[in-house]
Design a protein that fits this description.
Elements lengths: L2 E7 L3 E8 L5 E4 L3 H14 L2 E8 L6 H19 L8 E8 L2 E8 L5 E5 L6 E2 L2 E2 L2 H13 L2 E8 L3 H20 L14
Parallel strand pairs: 3-4, 7-10
Antiparallel strand pairs: 1-2, 2-4, 5-6, 6-10, 8-9
Helix pairs in contact: 1-4, 2-3
Length: 191
């Protein structure tokens, strides 16, 4: 089973992640309702089992919690993938949400890079600051070793845009972590 458990404790947050790339139960609790909804959708569309809990300094704001969850989830993904032998490596998905259409393209290359082109029309989605989506994606990319490109093709509702970004990320990850053979998909012979 390709799985990993990671815990990270700082003065600002305490984050625990158990990730299974082969599926399983999904349980998410961060104290930020909309973020829980997005992480649940991400795991569901990726086909992952995910147990994630985070306690953070939400009396300050959600930034530390969202960023640190991205850090720990990225670390767990990297560990669960191991040597990446046999994975498809690349993934791409478009997801429409009502008036919004978003695209995610990624490479599990071990070369982290984020291109995020998804302006948010509204600053807040409930108690979630919409600018934190980019912070999460950056932390996930850097700590997961992912080249990650996300784009809002169009859309006028920050809720719909954010949900399309998380769901398309899940679908692209499902494709990329899938087993396609026994070799490492790289002309270099290593990822």
């Amino acid at each position: 089973m390709r799985q990993a458990s990671i815990q990270r404790t700082t003065k600002e947050t305490d984050v625990s992640v158990a990730l299974c790339l082969e599926g399983g139960e999904i349980s998410v609790s961060t104290g930020i309702g909309f973020f829980d909804h997005m992480l649940t959708a991400l795991a569901f569309y990726a086909g992952f089992g995910l147990e994630l809990s985070a306690l953070g300094d939400l009396h300050v704001d959600g930034h530390h919690t969202v960023e640190d969850v991205g850090i720990v989830l990225g670390q767990a993904l990297r560990e669960a993938l191991g040597d990446k032998k046999g994975i498809r490596r690349y993934g791409m998905a478009f997801v429409p949400m009502d008036e919004a259409l978003c695209r995610t393209v990624l490479d599990l290359s071990s070369r982290p890079y984020l291109v995020f082109d998804a302006p948010m029309p509204q600053p807040m989605i409930g108690g979630y600051d919409s600018c934190l989506t980019e912070e999460f994606m950056r932390a996930l990319s850097v700590n997961g070793g992912i080249t990650l490109h996300q784009k809002r093709e169009y859309g006028g509702n920050a809720h719909h845009i954010t949900e399309a970004l998380f769901k398309s990320l899940g679908l692209a990850l499902k494709e990329a972590v899938g087993i396609a053979g026994g070799d490492i998909i790289s002309t270099k012979g290593a990822l």
